[in-house]
């Protein structure tokens, strides 16, 4: 057996084995997100600190749920097809390699079609998840700092306040989110530690600018007033980020750090193309040997 067959065979097996591992990892990640998306987000934040705080905005959304389903399906198909490729290489079976090549080409076409469909309908699904985020924000956010004691802080409100302070934004669309008379913040959260309440409170303290954000990272929330630039910010909206919506801030941050997210599917795509090329080469070599044996 020549090196021109052995070396491509070795590389094809290794690439397929790698794709099996990647497929299993995709299934695991997709299942984790489906079962406990908050736990998944918290784990990412644990290892990346506040660099991934924007992920909190997607917790519980249909976008994250559909993403997890797509990842599970892709991972499952990748495992099955790559396993067929591994087995075909090991036993040097031309029929299995042909089946593997055909299936991998179909998978690549499906992935390309799915990416194209997502890009073509971006405005629709973006509008859908932004609407669901807004409804959730209006229904659940009531504020934390200055309005309630630390023992009364609710998890969702605290996470949103951290998000607003870290990304220097205010509400999802801007300060107008807090003028909605039906929102929970408008009904329950318009109060401040100095005794001011009601219409005198324009925005929550999370919309204000801070000299330091270390109190967030150390979870020393009682010191927020020591770091706020303007003590009257909630009443005057001076020294605030009132005109910057968190949806815009999150989108800008994701675009700035999009390379790692884009590179992963590109690498998988290139691995798939490489396996298709190697498989076609081996199919032709095996066919040539079969013809030589026959004649």
Automatic annotation (TrEMBL):
Its main location: membrane. It comes from the Eukaryota. Belongs to the tetraspanin (TM4SF) family. It is a multi-pass membrane protein. InterPro entries: Tetraspanin/Peripherin, Tetraspanin_animals, Tetraspanin_EC2_sf. This is Tetraspanin. Keywords: Membrane, Transmembrane, Transmembrane helix. It is found in: Membrane. The chain crosses the membrane at residues 12-33, 66-90, 97-118, 261-284. One of its GO terms (cellular component) is plasma membrane.
């Amino acid at each position: 057996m020549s090196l021109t067959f052995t070396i491509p065979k070795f590389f094809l097996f290794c690439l397929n084995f790698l794709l099996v591992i990647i497929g299993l990892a995709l299934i695991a990640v997709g299942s984790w997100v489906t079962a406990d998306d908050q736990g998944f987000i918290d784990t990412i934040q644990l290892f990346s600190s506040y660099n991934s705080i924007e992920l909190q905005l997607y917790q519980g959304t249909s976008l994250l749920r559909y993403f997890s389903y797509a990842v599970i399906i892709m991972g499952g198909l990748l495992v099955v097809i790559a396993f067929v490729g591994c087995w075909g290489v090991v036993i040097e079976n031309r029929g299995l390699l042909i089946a593997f090549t055909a299936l991998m080409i179909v998978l690549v076409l499906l992935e390309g079609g799915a990416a194209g469909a997502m890009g073509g309908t971006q405005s629709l699904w973006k509008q859908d998840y932004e609407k669901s985020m807004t409804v959730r924000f209006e229904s659940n956010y009531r504020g934390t700092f200055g309005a309630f004691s630390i023992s009364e802080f609710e998890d969702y409100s605290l996470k949103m306040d951290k998000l607003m302070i870290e990304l220097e934004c205010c509400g999802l669309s801007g300060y107008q989110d807090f003028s909605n008379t039906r929102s929970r913040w408008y009904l329950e959260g318009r109060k401040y530690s100095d005794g001011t309440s009601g219409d005198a409170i324009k925005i929550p303290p999370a919309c204000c600018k801070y000299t330091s954000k270390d109190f967030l990272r150390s979870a020393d929330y009682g010191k927020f007033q020591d770091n706020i630039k303007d003590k009257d910010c909630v009443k005057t909206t001076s020294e605030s980020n009132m005109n910057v919506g968190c949806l815009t801030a999150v989108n800008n941050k994701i675009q700035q750090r999009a390379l790692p997210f884009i590179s992963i599917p590109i690498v998988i795509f290139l691995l798939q193309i490489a396996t298709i090329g190697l498989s076609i080469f081996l199919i032709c070599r095996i066919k040539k040997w079969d013809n030589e044996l026959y004649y």
